[in-house]
Design a protein that fits this description.
The longest helix has 29 residues. By secondary structure, this protein is of the alpha+beta class. Helix 10 runs antiparallel to helix 11 and helix 10 runs antiparallel to helix 14. Bound molecules: 5-S-methyl-5-thio-alpha-D-ribofuranose and magnesium ion (MG). 5-S-methyl-5-thio-alpha-D-ribofuranose binds next to helix 7.
């Protein structure tokens, strides 16, 4: 395909002929397209995802569709999201080498990225529902979140580079707009695309009558849209992580934007908390052990995040913020300044965490942790614990001591019959 070929969605049938001249692809799978097998495996809400297998190996071909796959062509969505995903992947690979799949090829006009086929990785959410452990998960995620947060900010970047990047990613308008509506706003009123599990109405009525809660959620939205502290993945849930029993990678950063330092880790913790609350429906005798493991992952991820952030503060603080000229060069310890930055970061993170716990049960695009529970009364009672804990986190985010306190709160709600 030449660079000016008009966009056309690939199919299993057309892919070999259309991509046979892409050398970055043939180098991986082999040159004869007649020998390729093509499978479409996209199970996300937005895109086409193909596995192409040839004599030389396998690759992933990901192509954006001009609409939201989950909803259909009644909801158009710009193809340019592939451009931002590609640029996000390049930056994530530089800021945390090895954390994302290798990128072989990008075709802007076809909104198409060809990347490493991860094997035997599977989507982390599926592992959490199946009760599987992933060694090194907290270390990987804590470091990834800290490195991308720190190295994408003016704590590290030069001011001209940061401003250029903010300007570049500011063009990603409609995709973050989904988050602005679905995550921050729709859960708190009867929005058109909302749905929820039968039986939850009393809990939802309580949340939606809570004006202070809505103010906190909208203040978090205000920070999300106007605070360009760092480049965020923007959709860091357990469906955006692929793992084996001992290796993990982050995928799918098409919701990238410059946003608050605490956004990604907050959303991530919410998805582990939802995995935790859903476990009574998925486990048997191993329930307690597995729930303990999930809470351990949350606590360790946050602990490692903070240790890595402090390490980068001490060793890579090369940007305009909190310069050594103001602190170390004056004989002043800068760690109280780092404490202050982290205090604001965690406040933002815990509010986002609570909001994400709400949106996955109340607006469009629920998560399989709860959706796979066939018994509606069981699902509703587990979601109710999650919703009420989310509200408490939003209200108390300023005073949450640390991730261990969040885990203790989760244990409390897990033992309550709130419905
Ligand atoms: C209409 S898109 C809904 C959700 O799918 C994506 O994966 C994001 O999580 C988004 O919020
Ligand atoms: Mg995604």
């Amino acid at each position: 395909m030449s660079a000016d070929t008009a966009y056309e969605a690939l199919t299993v049938e057309t892919l070999p002929e259309r991509l046979k001249d892409v050398t970055a692809l043939t180098a991986q799978v082999g040159e004869d397209p007649a020998l390729w097998q093509v499978e479409e495996v996209g199970d996300g809400n937005l895109n086409l995802v193909f596995i192409v297998t040839g004599p030389g190996g396998k690759v992933i071909v990901k192509q954006a569709l001009p609409y939201v796959r989950l909803v259909g062509d009644s909801w158009p969505l710009p193809l340019y999201r592939a451009f931002y995903e590609y640029h996000a992947l390049i930056r994530q690979a530089a800021r945390d080498p090895g954390a994302v799949p290798a990128i072989y090829h990008f075709d802007e006009s076809q909104a198409l990225i060809i990347m490493e086929f991860l094997a035997p990785h599977v989507i982390l959410r599926r592992k959490l529902i199946a009760g599987e452990h992933v060694a090194g998960l907290a270390e990987f995620l804590g470091r990834y979140c800290a490195r991308t947060a720190f190295r994408g900010s003016e704590l590290s970047m030069s001011s001209p580079d940061k401003k250029a990047d903010v300007a570049l990613f500011a063009g990603n308008v409609e995709i973050p707009a989904i988050t602005e509506a679905l995550v921050f706003t729709d859960p708190y009123f009867d929005a058109e695309m909302n749905s929820h599990t039968e039986g939850l109405d009393p809990v939802i009525a309580t949340l939606r009558a809570d004006v202070a809660l809505k103010i906190k959620a909208q203040q978090a939205l205000q920070r999300f849209v106007s605070n360009t502290e760092t480049m965020v993945h923007g959709d860091l849930h357990s469906g955006s992580i692929m793992s084996t029993g001992s290796d993990s990678r982050v995928i799918d950063p098409e919701f990238v934007q410059y946003g608050p330092l605490g956004f990604d880790i907050g959303m991530l913790c919410a998805n582990f908390l939802m995995a935790y609350f859903s476990q009574p429906a998925h486990r048997g005798a191993d329930l307690d052990e597995y729930q303990d493991w999930i809470l351990g992952v949350i606590a360790d991820t946050c602990r490692i995040f903070e240790a890595e952030f402090r390490h980068l503060w001490a060793t890579e603080r090369t940007g305009i913020l909190f310069p050594a000229a103001l602190f170390e060069d004056q004989g002043h310890d800068s760690s109280p300044a780092c404490d202050a930055v982290l205090t604001g970061l965690w406040r933002d993170a815990w509010v986002v965490c609570g909001i994400e716990m709400h949106r996955r049960c109340l607006s469009l695009a629920h998560n399989a942790d709860f959706e796979d529970i066939a018994d509606m009364s069981v699902r509703a009672s587990l979601e109710a614990r999650n919703l009420l804990m989310g509200a408490e986190l939003i209200h108390t985010a300023d005073t949450v001591a640390n991730a261990q306190a969040v885990c203790a709160l989760a244990r409390d709600y897990n033992g309550k019959d709130v419905l």
